[in-house]
């Protein structure tokens, strides 16, 4: 076992807030699905955690039917795993999952970063703003907002490719990437990783593209290694 601050927990205790029944009307099954998906992606329901239909229904004050519908959809997106004995758990990322996602990110983000010059003022401004807001949220200990800014920073880089098919592909991986980012930030939030983002922006502004790419590669490599350490024991 490692000394990772992130531990798998096979308890059925659910970190779920009640469902907001005052929101604009959407089918109840969809509302439950969105609630559970967000809880999984943001790390409130953690890998390996048991999901009981009865307990979820009780927490959200709904019947088991919409919960069952939501679980079926979550299963189709590999966010949960069905085990023998009709048990359901939040899916646990494998070493292969982590390596594949980061291989994709490394290929796309480094190529995209190479296309950003100091003439891309809007993109650079968006990256800069994401860094500043991410640092502010880190100091507040707000991992959810910090994760959102982290996601925004990296998606802004990818936008430089100006490729709609690539964007749709990244969108299809959104939940998986967001989950891994959430777990990584849980382990790293006390470490100022925003310094690396800021360094990337500074180097791009100066026209030092390959130097910026080198920092990005190390940034992604470190995140991958931390996640592999986190889940290799599982």
From TrEMBL:
Q: Does the keyword Chloroplast apply?
A: no
Sorted keywords for this record are: DNA-binding, Transcription, Transcription regulation
User: Per its record, what are the GO molecular function terms?
Assistant: DNA binding; DNA-binding transcription factor activity
Q: Which Gene3D superfamilies match?
A: GntR ligand-binding domain-like, Winged helix-like DNA-binding domain superfamily/Winged helix DNA-binding domain
Under the heading InterPro entries, the entry gives: GntR_C (IPR011711), TF_FadR/GntR_C (IPR008920), Tscrpt_reg_HTH_GntR (IPR000524), WH-like_DNA-bd_sf (IPR036388), WH_DNA-bd_sf (IPR036390)
What single Pfam family name could you report for this chain, choosing any that match? FCD
Q: What is this protein called?
A: HTH gntR-type domain-containing protein
In what residue span(s) does the HTH gntR-type domain sit? 26-93
Q: Is Transcription among this UniProt entry's keywords?
A: yes
């Amino acid at each position: 076992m490692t000394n990772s601050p992130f531990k798998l927990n096979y308890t059925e205790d659910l970190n779920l807030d009640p469902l907001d029944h005052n929101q604009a009307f959407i089918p109840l099954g969809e509302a439950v699905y969105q609630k559970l998906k967000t809880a999984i992606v943001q790390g409130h329901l953690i890998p390996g955690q048991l999901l009981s239909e009865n307990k979820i229904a009780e927490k959200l004050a709904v019947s088991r039917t919409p919960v069952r519908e939501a679980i079926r959809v979550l299963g189709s997106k590999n966010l949960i795993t069905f085990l023998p004995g009709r048990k359901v758990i939040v899916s646990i990322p494998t070493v292969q999952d982590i390596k594949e996602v980061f291989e994709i990110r490394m290929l796309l983000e480094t190529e995209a970063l190479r296309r950003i010059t100091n003439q891309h003022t809007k993109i650079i401004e968006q990256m800069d703003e994401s860094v500043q807001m991410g640092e502010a949220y880190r100091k507040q200990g707000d991992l959810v907002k910090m994760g959102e800014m982290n996601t925004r920073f990296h998606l802004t880089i990818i936008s430089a490719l100006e490729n709609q098919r690539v964007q749709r592909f990244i969108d299809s991986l959104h939940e998986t990437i967001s989950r891994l980012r959430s777990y990584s930030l849980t382990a790293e939030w006390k470490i100022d990783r925003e310094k690396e983002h800021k360094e990337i922006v500074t180097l791009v502004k100066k026209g030092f593209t390959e130097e910026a790419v080198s920092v990005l590669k190390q940034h992604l490599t470190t995140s991958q290694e931390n996640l592999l350490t986190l889940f290799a024991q599982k």
